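re the bet — no i am not wrong, look at it urself. input seq straight from the record:
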Amino acid sequence: MSPTPAQGSPTNQIVPLPPEPRIAPCSLITNEEVGAIQHATITDAKSSAGVSAGMLMSQCYYNAREPNMSVSLAVIEHNPQDVSAPDAKSYWTESFRRLAGDESDEEKPGERKEKRGGVEREEKEKRVPKRLDGIGQEAYWSGNRFGGALYVLAKDAIVRISVGGPDNEETKIEKSKALAQKALSRL
């Protein structure tokens, strides 16, 4: 009698493929639109999808001839294969809870100091995402001087846009908002 795989062993587990996203992210913004806003030559767009934190996440990566000018657009939506998965609004509320002022257990930036080499230094300040008005139901920019991403709640999805390049934060925010407006008009 030959041994059979134990329950739960990798040889007999069936892992379901992620469901097909309801929203195809690469259909929300054309290569030409990305190129015009980013001032770059977009050579192609590649999509991918998976499940993370119970949510269905799909992404379109717009490759630029100039590699640092690429753009990423992600759509986060309810995972229909998981009955316990939250809807986009619930996920948004949970993910951005601290933005609403619920920082009771968190230290304020710069409050805690530590000693290194005999010198007291402030820990890196946490950057609180910046709320942006006039786009989607709610929107936040989360980033620093090196990069960031725009998160927008609209309809029953969350759209995330990140632009590459040497631009300052304000320019990246404006480019991200312009791209998000185009994507939201096609949701």
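see?? The beta strands are 42-52, 55-64, 71-78, 113-116, 119-122, 130-131, 138-144, 147-154, 157-163. told u. also Helices lie at 31-38, 88-95, 169-185. so pay up
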